Task: inverse folding
């Protein structure tokens, strides 16, 4: 049984990258795992290992009371040894002139072997969050190789969820903390469906006060394309907000979601809401006793079903691409 003094072993891949540069320090501050000490395992590719060692030096220099140990490695077996929580941030970016299929396959070559290394080395109860893009399909590939139970491997749509809450809070002139029951369905891509149908303000349904044209023409595209907007304005892709959402995801997984609320999590579909089994799609999920459960019983109208079909179709075609390449 774990106590406050038992370290949680946390693996972060892509440790020399820009998301990790924020994520590691948030974890070290206790934002994901509370007052449990953290044994960090930072996994990088050989070319970036030295830079990851520099990040580890800074982590050490910060003298966080909760940092138990820091191991930097480019060996996946060492990187995943005893892992209780894994943040898979490292991924291959799209190269010049590459198609989306090249990106899917290039990443399949990373996530298949990482799944096998997790199976060999991590704790049997490990909780895995894939952040690296294309996150949903990377998670599907990893899941096929890791042999873990349904729900142990997840992909991140919490940033989309948080972006949606921020847009809604601004529109309604309120704060994100008063808004609940938001859902992002499907793929972490431009086909995602940020769905306000069940949205509540202080526990009361509020969707009726949002004009449908604003939802369809402003809100949904803005959330779905927010990543591109950040690149345009900041000059590089979302990093601190991605790290913050990864912390939120793992925090809720370990600590539970607030009573009555849910969050958006991409995990292996069990066929709920017509999303074919096996696709890694984002659903409304509650964290109960350390496990994600898909919220059941929501009623979907034709318009919602159509948007969910569109994003599920995209996920199915991504999976076909990697299956044809022999990666599943
Ligand atoms: P960076 O390019 O800054 O860092 C990525 C790091 O991963 C590099 O240091 C690289 O050496 C490392 N890496 C590559 N292959 C690896 C492997 N096999 N094992 C270990 N490390 C490996 O990217 P950053 O901005 O940190 O973004 C990381 C990933 O997050 C990207 O794929 C990005 O597209 C994705 N994102 C996902 C988001 C989401 O909501 N799911 C949002 C933010 C972000 O765009």
Result:
């Amino acid at each position: 049984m774990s106590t406050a003094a038992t370290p949680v072993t946390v693996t972060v891949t892509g440790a020399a990258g820009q998301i990790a540069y924020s994520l590691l320090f948030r974890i070290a501050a206790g934002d994901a795992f509370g007052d449990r000490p953290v044994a960090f395992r930072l996994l990088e590719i050989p070319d970036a290992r030295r830079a990851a060692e520099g990040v580890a030096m800074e982590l050490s220099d910060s003298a966080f009371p909760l940092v138990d140990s820091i191991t930097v490695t480019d060996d996946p077996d060492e990187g995943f040894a005893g892992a209780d929580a894994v943040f898979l941030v490292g991924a291959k970016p799209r190269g010049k002139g590459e198609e989306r299929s090249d990106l899917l396959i290039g990443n399949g070559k990373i996530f298949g072997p990482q799944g096998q290394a997790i199976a060999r080395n991590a704790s049997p109860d490990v909780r895995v969050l894939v952040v690296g893009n294309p996150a949903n399909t990377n998670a599907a590939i990893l899941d096929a190789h890791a042999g873990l139970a349904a729900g142990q491997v997840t992909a991140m749509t919490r940033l989309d969820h948080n972006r949606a809450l921020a847009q809604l809070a601004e529109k309604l002139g309120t704060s994100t903390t008063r808004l609940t029951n938001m859902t992002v369905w499907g793929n972490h891509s431009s086909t995602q469906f940020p769905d306000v149908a069940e949205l509540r303000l202080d526990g009361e349904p509020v969707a009726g006060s949002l004009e449908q044209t604003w939802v369809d023409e402003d809100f949904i595209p803005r959330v779905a394309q927010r990543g591109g907007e950040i690149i345009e304005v900041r000059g590089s892709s979302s990093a601190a907000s991605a790290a913050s959402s990864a912390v939120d995801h793992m925090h809720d997984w370990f600590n539970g979601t607030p009573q009555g609320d849910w969050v958006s999590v991409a995990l292996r579909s069990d066929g709920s809401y017509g999303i074919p089994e096996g696709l890694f799609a984002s659903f409304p999920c509650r964290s109960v006793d350390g496990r994600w459960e898909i919220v059941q019983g929501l009623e979907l109208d034709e318009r919602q079903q159509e948007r969910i079909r569109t994003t599920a179709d995209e996920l199915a075609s991504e999976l076909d691409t990697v299956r044809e390449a022999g990666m599943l």
About this structure: The CA atoms of residues 80 and 118 lie 6 Å apart. The chain has two domains: 8-155, 158-319.
